[in-house]
Amino acid sequence: MRFRIHTGRGLGGIAVRPEPAAAIGLLLAGDLLAARLIPASSPSPSAAPLAGVTGHVYVTNQLGNTVSVIDAGTNKVVATVPAGNAPEGIAITPDGRYAYIADNGSAMVSVLDTRTNKITTTVPVGHGPTGVRLSPDGTCLYVANGGSNSVSVLDTRTNRVTATVPVDVSPVSVAVSRDGATAYVANAGSHSVSVLDTRTRRVVGSLPAGRSPVSVAVTPDGESAYVANETAATVSAVGIRTRTVAVTVPVGEGPFDVALAPDGSRAYVAELGPGNVSVIDTRSHRVSATVAVGPPGTDPFNLAVTSGAVYVTNQGAGTLAVIDPKNLRVAATVAVGTSPYGVAVGP
């Protein structure tokens, strides 16, 4: 048995995960098969910005207690903002005015004014906050509290918690449907995704998942959810109406985040082990390409996807990779802070 160590598993600090040798052999075999079937890009980035990409990218640096602000047009860091204790998940309001940051080490959410690049207030939430997600209109923030088995609902107009919803064990991340009516919470400790009615603020059911579901993304039509199962090295494609797994897609070792293209045609998966991002065609539910963002130890961790770029935090390398979705190659690699975790894109 081997042990793999990485930081930021959602409960704070360093996590040690045992991996049985048999499972490792299966994962390696799957990776070798995938290498024969799908094209792989080379991590030989240039610093050239992507055409038509504007705005700013915000990266939380978990062990540096900072947020890096990157000009998306130039791929240059334009500010480094002191943040709270062990900042992890981050979400930007639709107008780009504020960023909400989960401070895992202090059970707080920090509110960053993007005009001044200063923290304006902090809001107490549950223990071990990790993932954050805003409602489509930006009025509600949902916070996955991994240490409290709950989701805090924060009113962004008052910056007050208006509800605390119990969920299953070790919630790590949250997704919200396009109409804002439903939130989905990936519970790493109970192999499930809680379904939360945002009007009643109650859990109304659950979706199945694989081992250690750590991330969930919902298609634009609200029909399907994609769930990254970290220790199973799979992504589950789940029918939301039927609440059944339609397809289980093998990916690389340690998938920690899954994010959809704006049109829902692709699901991007950050894989800790091989240093890759897998690209799943959501029509065929097959891996259509892999993008190498670095060697093993790079630890691609979390994703933010726009129509013009795919951003990947590389926790082990201390960088942000910028992938061109047109050719699926790394266009730039930006040095950020220590142990980059979350990433979000704003105007």
Number of spatially distinct domains: 1
The biggest sheet amounts to: 5 strands, mixed
What's the number of helices? 1
Q: Strands across the major sheet, in which order?
A: 3-26-25-24-23
Rg (CA only): 18 Å
Residues in β-strands, percent: over 45%
How would you characterize this protein structure?
- The protein has 347 residues and is mainly beta.
- It has one domain (2-346): Methylamine Dehydrogenase, Chain H.
- The protein has 1 helix and 31 strands.
- It has one helix spanning 21-37, and strands at 2-7, 14-19, 40-41, 56-61, 66-71, 76-82, 87-92, 98-103, 108-113, 118-124, 129-134, 140-145, 150-155, 160-166, 171-176, 182-187, 192-197, 202-208, 213-218, 224-229, 234-239, 244-250, 255-260, 266-271, 276-281, 286-292, 300-305, 310-314, 319-324, 329-335, 340-346.
- The strands form 8 sheets. A 5-stranded mixed beta sheet has the order 3-26-25-24-23, with no helix packed on it.
- A hairpin with a 4-residue loop joins strand 24 (266-271) and strand 25.
- It is globular, with a radius of gyration of 18 Å.
- The termini are far apart.
- Mean pLDDT is 88; it is low at 1-45.
- It holds the Pfam family YNCE.
- This is YNCE-like beta-propeller domain-containing protein.
- Residues 35-138 form the YNCE-like beta-propeller domain.
- InterPro entries: Host-pathogen_enzymatic-act (IPR051200), N2O_reductase_N (IPR011045), WD40/YVTN_repeat-like_dom_sf (IPR015943), YNCE-like_beta-prop (IPR048433), YVTN_b-propeller_repeat (IPR011964).
- Keywords: Signal.
